[in-house]
Design brief:
Structural class: alpha+beta
Shape: elongated
Radius of gyration: 56 Å
Number of helices: 28
Helix content: 55-70%
Strand content: 5-15%
């Protein structure tokens, strides 16, 4: 019963939606479609008919002009004095000479007539004499039609029947002509000719001469053709319906055409047959001629039919889309209600027995669900708001890097992330460089370092949230932007001293570079670059320090970054003498001198690099078998030094590597013993300093040697071994996660789960479930 109710409700919902769609959208579409068909399509049809009439009128006028021009040329030809005074043949030699001169004169005039584009060949046919003259020759009739103009035998009777009575621009029937070289029997081509005849004298019923102009049918058909795709054929027809010339292969019934011209006015379309229509225009040149065009109605009316088809298709699409949209909306409106009710019924079966449970109280359920969505939305808003500080910090970093240098771009992006700032205000950038001491550089993970920097940023912000912007510009570098108050109470050096107290830490050394003061936000990158340049003058003393312009000027001339030529020669001489001990002592002397002169870290590292390079050159002068990767690691170890003591310890280790005076103990055996100890005491505190002290190494050097011998970092090896033991406990015992964490040496449950997921990709509980199932 409930299902029938919902099915009925869904049908009613669909009908309501479709009715609204029909009233608001479909009705205007139907009205527009009707108007389009009754007005726009009719207008297109009338325009198409008018266009065809215009083309036919223009075409008939051009063709009439062509025939009129040809008629003038034929009349001029027949009106020449040469023809009027043409002498007959007699026995008198003087008359015979005059006779040939007139013939040659007529031949020249025939040549002019043959030069017309429409004329294929013309000749004069003398009725009273046995003579034919064309532009190239003259001859008697039998000889001419046997050699010069050979007509098919079956066409000759009808062709010669044309040379009787008066003729004025009369078309002959098409006849076949054979082309062959003179005085040969080889026929090279065959073609169909149509000729126009005109007699002379013009009004004489027994003319003396007929001018025959054979028309170039291809040229004539080209002029008769209308270059419109809806015109399939163009014909020149006489009043009896006989086709004089046709541009195509269409057939015309003489009786139907004669009836057409009697019953229909000119330039009107009327159906002919097989979706064809005829349109005719009377020739102004000859009253008995008509120009007829055969029209393909579907092509002519294609725009109108296309619009009509598109209108119906569009109307059908609107109906289909309306039905689909109404169906989809009804389904979307119906399904959530059903799903919510079904879910509530499955989770709370007692609701079925409650009064009114089937009365359709689903909207109350939707209301409660809406309240839940609102609460979820508030949580999401809080999450997004919590991301704003991160986005704003990245914006500050880009400004410091100089990616946004003009005030307009800074204002635009600040508005996008709701970042408040004053475009014109005095500010100073402090750069804080963090360097971890060597015992902790390898031990601390990247996560631990990130937490320490985040804690440090929070402490600096708390000094003055409104006056200090803090951001992380590099992995181990922070930048603070100090905003000066209008009364000038914010002093960069005083603030740097306060921050310096926060930077005192046993794990790292911090150096503060103070930049120059700028007066607009778009110039912050200048103060940042200046602060970075100040950090080049940090020292090798432990603890936090401030690098300012005043200190730089005091220290800029102190210290030397390179060995002198005398020192280089001294190192080479001591090496050759085998005095390796004094080689190390000379480095300690240089370090002591640098400490007394208060040389900065860059100077001493450059000096240390120069010393190491000299040692390497001295060794390579006698042997060339040292691995370049070892040299690279030695140079890198100098660059990692943070304090004077680390510099001393690094050179002790380098000296021990380069100048071994005694055979070193078996490293592999020592590391094998350490691995055995780790496997036996993996659940205890395993300090790297303990093993480094046993092997007389620094923690950093021990860590590097451990990786070379074992193939993994010290911390990674212990973590993986503990995880392997944890997997045994998970699969072979029923111990709880907390107990397993303590059993394998982790201080808490969370750190154990985090490391297990890091190496195995899943939590310990899920690992146990998958493998035990």
């Amino acid at each position: 019963m409930v299902n029938r109710f919902w099915q009925t409700y869904r049908t009613v919902l669909f009908c309501r939606l479709f009715a609204n769609y029909f009233a608001l959208i479909l009705t205007p579409v139907i009205v527009a479609a009707v108007l389009t068909n009754f007005f726009v399509v009719r207008l297109i049809e009338h325009d198409a008919e008018r266009l065809n009439n215009t083309i036919m009128q223009h075409f008939s006028e051009q063709t009439d002009d062509t025939f009129a021009s040809l008629e003038r040329d034929m009349v001029n030809m027949l009106s020449t004095a040469s023809l009027k005074n043409f002498p007959g043949t007699s026995g008198d030699p003087a008359d015979l000479t005059q006779h040939y001169e007139w013939i040659h004169s007529l031949m020249q005039q025939m040549n002019k007539l043959d030069s017309e584009d429409l004329v294929y060949k013309s000749f004069l046919y003398f009725a009273s004499e046995d003579l034919v003259i064309d532009g190239n020759t003259y001859n008697n009739k039998d000889e001419y039609f046997r050699e010069q103009y050979l007509i098919k035998d079956t066409d000759m009777p009808s062709y010669f029947a044309n040379f009787t009575g008066k003729k004025s621009m009369v078309f002959t029937k098409p006849h076949t002509v054979f082309e062959r070289p003179p005085f040969t029997r080889d026929i090279v081509s065959t073609h169909s000719n149509t000729a126009m005849l005109m007699s002379y004298p013009f009004n004489n019923s027994n003319p003396e001469v007929y001018l025959v102009v054979n028309l170039d049918l291809d040229e004539l058909r080209g002029r008769l053709g209308i270059q419109e795709k809806w015109v399939t054929d163009t014909m020149l027809v006489n009043s009896s319906g006989s086709v004089l010339i046709s541009n195509g292969s269409s057939e015309l019934q003489p009786d139907s055409f004669a009836a057409m011209i009697r019953m229909n006015p000119e330039q009107t379309l009327f159906l002919y047959e097989n979706k064809k229509a005829l349109s005719f225009t009377k020739s102004r040149f000859n009253d008995t001629w008509y120009y007829v065009s055969m029209i393909d109605l579907p092509t002519l009316m294609k725009p109108a039919s296309t619009i009509r088809t598109m209108t119906f298709v569009l109307l059908g699409m609107f109906i289909i889309v309306g039905g689909l949209v109404s169906y989809d909306l009804s389904r979307r409106l119906y399904n959530p209600i059903r799903e919510i009710k079904t879910g509530l019924e499955s989770q709370h079966p007692h609701l079925d027995d409650a009064p009114g449970s089937h009365s359709g109280n689903e909207f109350d359920t939707i209301k409660r669900f809406s309240h839940l969505l609102i609460s979820k939305n508030k949580e999401l808003t809080q999450t997004v708001n919590g991301m704003f500080p991160i986005v704003q910090e990245q914006f500050i970093v880009r400004v410091l890097f100089g990616e946004y240098r003009d005030s307009l771009s800074i204002e635009y992006y600040a508005k996008e992330i709701a970042f408040p700032y004053k475009p014109v205000s005095a500010a100073t950038v402090l750069c804080i460089d963090i360097q971890y001491y060597s015992p902790f550089a390898e031990q601390l993970s990247e996560t631990s370092k990130s937490f320490m920097l985040a804690e440090l940023k929070e402490k600096i912000r708390k000094l003055s949230p409104a006056m200090i912007w803090v951001c992380q510009t590099r992995s181990e570098q922070l930048s603070c932007i100090l905003h000066h108050e209008e009364n000038g109470l914010c002093d960069p050096k005083e603030t740097a001293n306060v921050i310096k107290l926060l930077l005192e830490h046993p794990y790292y050394k911090a150096s503060i570079g103070i930049g120059e003061t700028i007066h607009s936000v778009d110039a912050l990158h200048e103060s940042y670059n200046h602060a970075l340049s100040m950090l080049h003058y940090k020292s090798l003393h432990a603890g936090a320090e401030i690098c300012s312009e005043q200190r730089v000027w005091k220290e800029r001339s102190s210290g030397d970054s390179f060995l002198s030529a005398q020192e280089v020669n001294r190192i080479f001489n001591r090496y050759k003498a085998g005095d390796y001990k004094n080689l190390l002592q000379s480095v300690f002397d240089l370090l002591d001198a640098g400490m007394r002169s208060n040389a900065n870290a860059d100077q001493m590292k450059n000096l240390g690099t120069d010393v190491l390079n000299t040692w390497a050159r001295a060794i390579e002068s006698e042997q060339n078998d040292f691995d370049i990767s070892v040299y690279s690691e030695l140079f890198a170890s100098i660059n990692r030094c943070v304090t004077w003591e680390e510099m001393r310890q690094t050179f002790r280790e380098i000296h021990g590597v380069l100048f071994r005076t005694t055979v070193a103990p078996d490293r592999k055996q020592q590391f094998a013993e350490i691995l055995d100890y780790i496997r036996a005491h993996y659940n205890e505190e395993l300090s790297i300093e303990h093993f480094a002290e046993q092997m007389n190494m620094s923690a950093g050097h021990f860590s590097r040697m451990f990786k070379e011998e074992v193939g993994e970092k010290y911390v990674e090896y212990i973590a993986k071994y503990r995880i392997s033991k944890a997997k045994q406990f998970l699969l072979e015992t029923d111990m709880k996660i907390d107990d397993i964490a303590g059993q394998i040496g982790y201080w808490g449950r969370n750190s154990f789960i985090r490391n297990f997921r890091r190496y195995e990709g899943i939590t310990p509980a899920k690992y146990r479930t998958i493998h035990q199932s």
